Amino acid sequence: MGHQRDQRSGEVRVSILSRLREQVAVREPERADSGDGEQPPADRPAAWRRWLPLATAVAVAAAVLLASGTSPLDILRYAAYATLAVVLPGTLVFRALRRHPHTLVEDLAFGAAIGLVLELAGWALLSALDLRGVMWLWPALVYVPFLAVPQLRRHWWVRAYPARPSQAWSWTVAGAVSAFSLYLYGVFFSPNPILPDREDSTQFLDLPYQLSLAAEAKRNFPLDLPQVAGEPLHYHWFAFVHVAMGSLVGGIDLPVLTMRLMVLAVCALTTVLLAVVAWRVTGWALAGAVAAVLFAVIGEFDFVAAPWPPFGTQVTFVIWPSLSMTYSWALLVALIGAIADRIPRADGDSRIPAFGPGAWVMVALLALASSAAKASSLPVALGGLALAGAAVLVLRRRISWPIVALGAVVAAAQLFALAAVFAFKRYGLTTSPFANISGYWYGAGKNSLTQFLIIVAVFAAFLLRLQLRAAGILPLVWFRRGRLTPVQWFLLGGAVAGPAFFLLFTGYAATWFTRAGFPFSLVLSGWGYAMVVDRANLSRRGRALLAAFGAAFALVLTAIAWRWAPSSYPVRSSYGALLPTLLLAATLAAVAVVAGVAWRLAQRRWPALRGRGGAVLLTGVLLAGAPGLALDVRMSWGVPGGPYEEKVPVSAAQVEAARWVRDHSDPTDIVATNHHCTMPVYECDNYRTFWLSAYSERAVLVEGWSFAPRLQPNIWAPFWDQALLDLNERAFYEPTQAVLEELAREHGVRYLVAVRAVRPESPDLAALATLVYDNEKVAVYEIR
Predict the structure, then answer these.
(1) Whole-model pTM above 0.85?
(2) Cβ atoms of residues 753 and 657 within 8 Å
């Protein structure tokens, strides 16, 4: 074995230039380069070929946006805003912080993440000073010093990078971004117009709520609950600052941002960040390409096209109903890269030059931004650091003070968010081990053995459905014989902490921990895959055949699922919903066994197959979830508002009235309405209506209060201030001059918005207030 390895290393040294041109990232782990470094001038592709992957991804994204009703001017405005007010200032600061450059795409990706942090700071500063009218000037806080200080001017232009992504890497990442853009069109953009355009339009209930938070960020710091004017919002709201800034600075309508531009842009950024972070952390460019594909192309492992799957999801039904999760992933992936840079390296780790001491500033900035982007991010990162520190202590019998310091920084950021943003609220999160999955086995077994087997099957289904894309971790641990480096322990700790917290706590809020652990597992899985492919020592033709097999396998599996996957889960037993996953796994396992026997027999005729079956097997395992995103599109296509039950009616008439109020009021004006319940009836217990605060971009005295932090998790509770609610209702149904004067004087109410489908307003109201808008379904009165 040692002789073969030395011989192979010699071959690498002899043909290193040609192999760098040919491969994505196949290299010996101890080499200092990435396996895909800068190519010699004679081998460099023409400039137009280098930029063609990027141009293709941008063209696909633009085509998707245009096809879904986005104005070309809005696309250009957002591109200009993102470039000049996010990416460019962030890149300048990133270059000043990092000591050694690696690639241009890394500078821009990390720069975009740092830019989102700076955007938060600029918004907070100018909002606190009540200077929202000059919010467009915030990038000058970065530009001026980088123009005025001679030592900083060099960061405007980096003339040479030590590495350059290969065409294969660039096309893989661009293809992943393009595939995800098309997925977004099928699952979100096509079923959901930018503005509701029919009287029977419906929206998933979180969409207007997210829009209302973005509108709140345009006018308040810190944010209040838009549906109850003046009620503090103890919630992870940082994501909506980016939407607000796109409107304040870019001049783009908020619904265009929330329903189109932001979700596509941030998903693309997360995909690219995964690729560059995995490359940097592992030292293998191939690991980055694989991580990007696993995030943006491969879905959950299942064989059913139906809403509300078991155990939740990682990507499907997450990236558009939860802008906070989408936004937080970009920051978390960048944070993973910065933390890994400061963890002491060991034999087998990346040899890409470290960022340097400036990475400590990156960790602090990204941790602070992550803390209230999504509350689940930092606990999972702390879990990773805890495992890394414990591993160093047990295996090397010493304390790793850099890991301790990293934990202190991240813990401080988490404490800041808990105290200053969340006010130590738990949102219904309680400790109850296995409560989130025990329902699948409860009372299912007729005897102890049967019950035990069912419990094992439930855990197997959980791992298969949500964690199969992490399968590359297993060979990495095997190759290392369990003696991982501190960076690998950190990644493994984050990958395990996410699902572990999900199993430890109860409630829907626990699912976000699983998603926070997702990028950790993708980076480490990509690392393991790169090691497997490297050990297979494939030729260029072998790598091409492996890629062709992967593509063919994914397409065939997707075609079979598209044609024959059922549209509902079995419900005959408590574990019935898990049977499709288990049966699919058993079927593919049987196919793998037969293929393995055939492979062994084929080795007698073709000895070159020996030692390469593992790469084929792992490729198939990682791609087994390929139908996931396609099945999500299948069940969403042609269904207005999407196939999910948690939809609320939001009619075109309601939106028109709300936007009239927006156009004829000041941002500080308060609106009152008689519409509190999701359904158009007066008596109900489902107070989740958010359309008025969303589309008017104004705070409402009392709208739907179910999402108020003070009520969580009891979203069905009655309103806590009955006197205020009674005053609000009297203005519509028993109006007097005194009631209207109290609303205007004590609560700042300017407009009354009456929804007649709930209950027609009193005829006396027209004599006491001025009817300023009426489309027969919704009337707007101005208090005199």
Answers:
(1) yes
(2) yes
